[in-house]
Design goal:
11 helices, 343 residues, Rossmann fold, seven-stranded parallel beta sheet
């Protein structure tokens, strides 16, 4: 029996690459689409090293409808799509909003149009807890009101969700979707063959931690220690990327089993919050490496604290996290060390 084929846009990216591995291990046949604007081709070698075989990859831009259409026609029998492809740096989105709207919103619209043409009706969409803005109550559930976004990046995720809702409400598309609202993905595959690979200066905490520990960066700056949190630093819900990848596999299974009516939303996190300082100490405890860090001023646009209620994902997707914060930090450090060896 042929394996069910899943198109993975942005499949060479951080979360995409881990999801490709988990799809194969769950018995699916992923096909990667990536333009490598925010990833490196060596990721494909890492995926192949883990799986013992390569995964098909088409080097195209998801805003190119003709190229996207040709992938569906070449591959045939695609039964679902996981859409990761997007820019994700909050600061850059403030400076270059049109770049973000064109890429993040435009690529979703183009993809949906091609999916309709090709009669592919299952979509898992990569969304974000950023849609909750600064929540009034914690933890946030899927019923927590979506608020005005803090950045153009956040607004693109909000707009993309609205597009999917409108499409579902139209009643004539046939496309069903699951939007997974990620909290803070961290860590790397236990093989240390794939992990977070930021181009340039990292915009996420953990690569900055590992690069500082490795001596690539001189010092880590923690932005603010005067928030209303246990130690004054921001609170986030840090979820291991492999756990997050597995959530996509369960979402695909749910769709292919016909359990999705029109559109569903799920929080994907651990269900608990940790401060930035707790994350730093977890890294130090897990690796034995002391970090050079300082406290700086608050950073504009940062949400003081947010973490997930994951009851819905647990009950309906069967999702649960298996990794501790220390384990995630150790895997991130192992990945950083493997990068150093490759140089």
């Amino acid at each position: 029996m042929a394996k069910e084929k899943i198109l993975v846009t942005g499949g060479a990216g951080y979360i995409g690459s881990h999801t490709v591995v988990e799809l194969v291990e769950a018995g699916y046949e992923p096909v990667i689409v990536d333009n490598f604007s925010n990833s490196e081709e060596r990721v494909l070698d890492g995926i192949a090293a883990i799986l013992g075989r390569s995964v098909p990859c088409h080097r195209i831009d998801c805003n190119d409808a003709a190229a996207l259409r040709s992938v569906f026609e070449q591959e045939q029998d695609i039964v679902g799509v996981i859409h990761f492809a997007a820019y994700k740096a909050v600061g850059e989105s403030v400076e270059q909003p049109l770049k973000y709207y064109h890429n993040n919103v435009g690529s979703l619209v183009t993809l949906l149009q091609v999916m309709e043409e090709q009669k592919v009706h299952n979509l898992v969409f990569s969304s974000s807890c950023t849609v909750y803005g600064i929540p009034e109550t914690l933890p946030v559930t899927e019923q927590t009101p979506v608020q005005k976004a803090n950045s153009p990046y956040g607004n693109t995720k909000k707009i993309c969700e609205e597009i999917l809702v409108d499409l579902a409400s139209s009643g004539n598309s046939g496309i069903k979707s699951i939007a997974l609202r990620y909290f803070n993905p961290i860590g790397a595959h236990p093989s240390a063959k794939i992990g977070e690979l930021p181009l340039g200066v990292p915009s996420n905490l953990v690569p900055f931690i590992t690069q500082t520990a490795a001596g690539i960066r001189e010092q880590l700056t923690i932005f603010g220690n005067d928030y209303d949190t246990p130690d004054g630093t921001n609170v986030r819900d840090y979820v291991h990327v492999v756990d997050l990848a597995k959530a996509h596999v369960t979402a695909v299974a749910r769709m292919l089993q016909g359990k999705v009516q029109d559109i569903e939303f799920f929080n994907v996190g651990t269900g608990r919050g940790n401060t930035v300082l707790e994350a730093v100490h977890a890294f130090e405890n897990a690796t034995g490496v002391k970090l050079n860090y300082k406290i700086g001023p608050r950073r504009a646009g940062d949400v003081p604290k947010i973490y997930a209620d994951v009851t819905k994902a647990t009950e309906e997707l069967g999702f649960k996290t298996t990794s501790t914060l220390e384990e995630a930090m150790k895997s991130a450090w192992d990945w950083q060390l493997s990068l150093q060896k490759d140089k």
